[in-house]
Amino acid sequence: MPLPRRTLLAAAFAVLPLASPHAQEPIEVAGVYTVPVEQQWVGRLHEALQAAAARGDITYTWSENVANTDYERVMREYAEAGKDLILGEIFGVERAARDVAKDYPDTAFLMGSSFPPQEPNLAVFDNYIQECSYLTGLVAGSLTKSNLIGMVGGYPIPEVNRLMHAFMQGVNETKPEATFLVSFIGSWYDPPKAKEAAFAMIDSGADVLYAERYGVSDAARERGVMAVGNVIDTQKEYPSTIVASALWHMEPSIDRAIGAVKAGTFTAEDYGPYSSLGEGGCTVAPMQEGMVPLDVQKMVAAKEAAIRDGSLVIPVDDTEPKASR
């Protein structure tokens, strides 16, 4: 005997997921940053969030230059204000930030972190763009004449170390005899200090610099040597200096998090893989033939294709890189 229509409708609706209250309306998002939003790493988050706000997916507010000692307070204020999603970088405040997440289980947190996600509501991300860093290393190795590469970083933490190691791997594939100078300035944003470290490397004979921090490309431009960019594209700012850049795109991670909050499915997840080449989380900035020979560009394109099809895997090495000279 066929079931009554009312029974069929009830059964059908019973299997449908409950709609999130955020499904159609913008969610409220806050960013908590320890550096200015002009700084390249945080700038990538800021850019992706501004794009989401322009689309009408979110409302977005942020606090920049937040000291580590003040970070917990700012996080709590945003959580108390009812923000749906809070983003930031908690590398120096892991314990305090994770305590905040525990106290606000109904708030979604997506934080740059060296540690795993924390159930139920703290997801983590990182700039796993080592594949593109490797590709820029191929360029640097092809172009160096002195066979000495200078590398200036902020701190020797995993998210910096893995990019440097991948870059060095690329250099040594195209120039096995190349050696490296490595320096960490102990700051995420101190362009004058990074510039001085770069000057010292140029004085030692480096003719290509890996610009993990702001200030390095300024030194390269002033001394007439080449530089490789990191995270953002500064080719227009340094048109005769930057030969290649590994670009980080936070849009895949940000859009996934926004979608999960809207759907009511946000969980403690590792968003690191969404920064990979295959996910659209990193690219190599377009190179100029006048600076990078066409045969080098073709070689880089072939290596990129191999990464995409899985025949070439770039290892993740989070150990502190050491100078080889």
The CATH homologous superfamily of the largest domain: Response regulator
User: How many separate domains?
Assistant: 2
* Secondary-structure element order, N to C: HEHEHEHEEHEHEHEHEEHEH
Question: What's the pLDDT, averaged over the residues?
Answer: 92
Helix share bin:
25-40%
Radius of gyration: 22 Å
| Multimer state | single chain
Strand order within the widest sheet? 7-6-8-9-10-11
Number of helices, counting only DSSP H or I runs of 4 residues or more:
10
Structural class: alpha/beta
Residue stretches low in confidence (pLDDT < 50, at least 5 long) are 1-21
CATH architecture of the largest domain: 3-Layer(aba) Sandwich
Termini separation (Å)?
85 Å
**Count of DSSP strands:** 11
**Overall 3D form:** globular
Could you write a compact summary of the structure shown?
With 325 residues, this protein is an alpha/beta fold.
Q: Could you characterize what this model shows?
A:
- Helices cover 40% and strands 18% of the residues.
- The protein starts with a helix and ends in a 17-residue tail after the last helix.
- It has 2 domains: 20-126 and 250-274, Rossmann fold, CATH 3.40.50.2300; 130-249 and 280-308, Response regulator (Rossmann fold), CATH 3.40.50.2300.
- The protein is globular.
- It has a 6-stranded mixed β-sheet, with helices on both faces. It has a 5-stranded parallel β-sheet with strand order 2-1-3-4-5, with helices on both faces.
- Strand 6 (148-153), helix 6 (158-174) and strand 7 (179-184) form a beta-alpha-beta unit.
- By secondary structure, it is an alpha/beta fold.
- The chain has helices at 5-14, 40-55, 68-80, 94-103, 130-143, 158-174, 191-203, 216-223, 251-263, 294-308; strands spanning 27-32, 58-63, 85-89, 108-112, 122-125, 148-153, 179-184, 208-211, 226-231, 242-248, 282-284.
